Write the structure tokens for this entry.
Amino acid sequence: MCIRDRLGGYRLRAAAAEPRRDLAAVAAVGGRFVCPGDREWPSQLDDLGDARPVGLWVRGRPDLRLWSLRSVAVVGARACTPYGAHMAATLGSGLAERGWVVVSGAAFGVDGAAHRGALAAGGATTAVLACGVDVPYPRGHAELLGRMAQQGLVVAELPPSAHPTRSRFILRNRVIAALTRGTVVVEAEYRSGSLVTARQAQRLGRFSMGVPGPATSGLSAGVHELLRGEGVLVTDADDIVELVGDIGDLPPVRRGPVLPRDHLDAATARVLEAFPYHGATHPRDLARTAGTSADETLGRLYELHSLGFVEREGDAWRLTPPSARNDDARRGDT
């Protein structure tokens, strides 16, 4: 399409616009129009340059600018798996519990699960729509959108009564990417609007993150491709906050369960490791293998006996059979 034809189309759309009608319509549902220069305008949207929205239609009491300062987008497949829905809800609730606003597109699947997770945790969530803020789309999320209009924010670039089209979803995605500090993709195929959002976030200097899934799942293929590039692998809210948060927002140390044998001192642990898996052995053989003296080995053996790890058999010692150990020693089995 040439520039002349495109300008002609813009003139026709401008001639059909009725700003007073739109303002009255958004006011009727308790909304407002926010544009650049307003106190409530999120300045990070200016990073879009010429693609910056002319303004945003907003429903909900919270301040859009303030809520967007600490926000993360959680997006993904509409036809997600139970795993994807679980992870989206878990991330949504985890981020909300840590004081972050969860932003998504209110679609079926991952979007809806992320919104519900945030709401279930009593947290904050923002829906960015590809239609008017007064249009319940998808219809199956009418109740969810109503809750967000009461407890959170519903935002759209399009005026009231506007209905979604394929191209409008793509336009909506750039707003999600620019509005937040980072975008997390939970599940996505190779050709997915969620990946468009994540890559837009990368271009804007935001964090792009992905939740890994089964290598055999087509719904994780797009996420894995993102992770092979500049995307960062995340598995929970702590991982996300470490990336997008302030200095000092570090995740807890990752480690497996603490076992009783972890509390043994080094010499006692060496004596225990010196035991053969089957059969009895003499203390002098244990001392030679563990590199300890005979007297020290004997003392360590009685410590291990009191903890239920070993038992005496004449002059020899053997590992206590797992079925005969006490609960603490059984938990120490490897």
